[in-house]
Design goal:
The protein has 326 residues and is α+β, with helices and mostly antiparallel strands. Helices cover 33% and strands 28% of the residues. The chain has 6 helices and 12 strands. It is globular and about 75 Å long. About 4% of the residues have low confidence.
């Protein structure tokens, strides 16, 4: 019992010390950082900009106990915002806002980019007025909302138009992430679609439709198929169980059918946190699913023969599906 108390005390001390390391290394306090950033913004922007979510950004990469991160936004239009990383000790000096090797833009440069980005977003919203009820440009994806039941042809037409608009404003959309569009149609179509664009080249191309993993519709499909897959494995005497990795591939032609792919492991496998990790996945189950009726058209198991990373496996599986899924 006494030994356990000692261990808990040591752990508590380590946690406290970890939080104090930046201060012990000469780092300014969070209160001082807030005061310095406030003075800097007031001096350079005369009350136009404010900030929130101020946190210390000390890590192994910068090894600077005075580095902080804050979300800076325009007071009159909070949607004009950007994330700034700054040295709280130097921010009020003459060279305080000069870019570093890791963070290459000053706050004035980031503010200019954020305003340019916002102008482009507003022009895109105006373009789709009457066709989409709302467009939210986020850091990880852009979400478009329908207020009516949309047919496949309309969704594809709007996607084509979105691609054109994104290419028009590609150089202006420097803050928003626009390589993924989420069509939120949960209330009107019972489905939330995602469209991934290939943005590696000098323009957006290569539309790929799918069901948005974070949506209610994706969860509903998963919950309806889990008992069906478990029953199939049991009925056919497979000594296998469902692994936590899965994906749902949507038929691109009509969005009416999908293929659910679930990784499989040997029955009785439990997570092993001790020792060297061993990949438990030895097979896959494929389920062809009718989205409109909820019926299962067919399902089968394939043995795993290529041992790539899970992401590479999913990509390979997708490429080997019938042509209408590409």
């Amino acid at each position: 019992m006494r030994k356990m108390i000692y261990v808990l005390v040591i752990v508590a001390v380590l946690i406290v010390c970890r939080g104090c390391i930046p201060s012990l290394m000469g780092g300014v306090s969070k209160k001082t950082a807030a005061e310095n950033l406030t003075q800097y913004l007031e001096k350079n922007f005369k009350g136009t900009l404010e900030f929130e979510e101020l946190d210390r950004f000390f890590n192994e990469g910068n090894m600077n106990p005075n580095m902080f991160r804050a979300v800076v936004y325009e007071k009159a239009c909070p949607e004009i915002l950007f994330v700034s990383y700054f040295d709280a000790k130097k921010i009020l000096t003459e060279d305080g806002d000069k870019p570093t090797a890791s963070y290459r833009k000053t706050i004035p440069e980031q503010y200019k980019d954020a305003k340019t980005d916002y102008t482009a977003r507003e022009l895109i919203r105006k373009h789709f007025k009457g066709r989409l009820s709302k467009i939210d440009f986020g850091y990880f994806e852009t979400t478009a909302f329908f207020n009516h039941k949309a047919e496949v042809s309309e969704i594809k037409s709007i996607t084509d138009d979105f691609e054109k608009q994104l290419n028009i404003y590609k150089d202006s959309l420097v803050v928003s992430n626009t390589s993924r569009i989420v069509f939120n149609m949960e209330e009107v179509n019972g489905l939330t679609l995602k469209v991934d664009f290939d943005s590696e080249s000098d323009k957006f191309t290569g539309q790929r439709f799918g069901v948005w993993r974070k949506s209610k519709s994706y969860t509903n499909i998963e919950e309806s198929l889990k008992p069906e897959m478990t029953n199939y494995l049991s009925s056919n005497n497979f000594d296998l169980q469902l692994h936590g990795t899965n994906a749902f591939y949507l038929r691109q032609t009509d969005f009416a059918e999908g293929v659910w792919v679930n990784f499989l492991e040997k029955k009785g496998t439990v997570p092993n946190d001790k020792g060297r990790w061993q990949d438990p996945v030895i097979a896959f189950i494929f389920v062809y699913y009718d989205i409109n009726t909820g019926a299962i058209k067919k399902q089968f198991v394939e043995k795993r023969t290529v041992f790539d990373s899970y992401m590479d496996e999913l990509e390979r599986i997708g490429k080997n599906l019938p042509a209408e899924y590409h």
